[in-house]
Amino acid sequence: MDRLALLRWILSAFALAAGLALAVPAAATTGTPLSVCVRPALPAQTPAALFAQPRGFDCTTTQSRFGGGDFWILSQRLPAIAADDRDATVRIGSTWVDRVTLYVLYADGSIRHTGFTSRTAGRLLGLGAVINQPIPHHAAAPVRLLWHIEGAANLRGLILGPALADPAQRNTTEILLAALYGGFGGMAVALIVYNLALWGALRQAFQPAYCLLVLCLLAYALTSSGALGQLLPMLDNNDRQRFNALFLAASAAAALIFARTFFERAVFNGVLRPASTIVMVALATTGLAWAILAPWQFHLLDRLLACAYLALLVLVPTILIQAWRVRSNFLWLFALAWGVPIAVATLRVANAFNLFAWSLWLDNSTILSMALESMLSSMAIAYRIRLLSVERDTARAQENAARELADTEPLTGLLNRRAFLSRAIGRRGDQMLLIADIDHFKRVNDLIGHDGGDEVLRVVARALYNSVPPGALVARIGGEEFAILFEATNAVAPGAVLERVRSQRMPFDIVVTASIGSCTGPLLNETDWKHLYHCADRALFAAKAAGRDCAREAPPARIAA
User: Where is average pLDDT lowest: 83-87, 396-400, 455-459?
Assistant: First the structure.
């Protein structure tokens, strides 16, 4: 897949994610939003008195400015709800509280209540970490709501996103959020499985690092979605939020580990490597401290964790700039895959510093952005693996070329003596060895010079190579001496080899002949080679003694037992 094709895939993924992003917030905010006002709780206050005299409630100050503690939250007058509507529900975002009691004022003046504690919130928890409180049934229609909040941390607000929802709206929200979290969960498991499988073959450090990142995100999705509370209704909702903070911090630290292994090492040279280590340690320690120590010094712990995320956001553009400076091959892939998660993380950090209000969509945006990142990162990793494959093939080709160069005699292109012996010794069955020697080669050099002599060597080498069957070994083992080896059952007559040499046109049309000695025998070890070579060499000497330009064959070589 080339870069243009990969870019088309990435843009398609962006379009798909954008469509999902438009659908999810609409579902996440389904229902009728309620405006609320806040009043710190004081002794002897009663719901009836507060419903009757609501003038002490503050409707303008941001909820998070009140700090932690106990509070009363009064809603606006409710839109018309039929008295026989027995399925109306109040939805609020999950926060760190000890107890929440909902009081409902009805048109006939009656007040009824329902509530939950952090230990019993699991039975009311929906996907998206939303608390669904059914309005108690009564003969008259409900007209106003009053929450009594006890033990609130009030990090982001006291009552987050209060809204009235009917069954159809609740079901729509649950279905779409289930699709979001279920799709992310399935994709996360698939990414872990295939990266671990590829890691077994490729052994690239970024693959287990990416698996760790996805595993942390999977744990974060399980806790942030509220699914863990649904699976374990007895789980304290505040403890679920401890796990949620811990796994989100772990995911951020794992993202840095992945970046350090995904980019080339040069990207993190210098101060970036220790700086990234410091940020990872800060994320891990502050996330762990938040999970273990809360609610002790809650606001301080929350600010320290938010500062660790802020440090990460400052570090990321520095990494990208350095990757651009060193001309990283993976910068554009990383930027495309992580652009949306980084933008969402920026919004989450801004919300942690109370720069704008909480929303259910924002609270679930991390998983949506990471689902997009997972799709794009899987393409980035596939592209990275393709580059590794190209690098491997190139290295293998270079290795083969180097080995071929090391095994080849440079003048003639035939095997050299070392390569010839390494391939010859150990062959099964009887082998025929031919030793060919150019006749009067010194005269050739004297007659036409050494350059001409080199050309004669090349012509003879080509003739020898072309006269033998496939699988035969042809080597230059001395100045003008050549060796040819093939199986005895597929032997070529030495006379045919000589005829091929005689038929070649030589430099300056001089006449060049050769003599050949041959011998047949086993070649299982070095001793066999020495015996076979000496046998063929004696036959060559006999051919020279017989007047040259001829071949002689020695009796088969056998080593005495």
Answer: 83-87
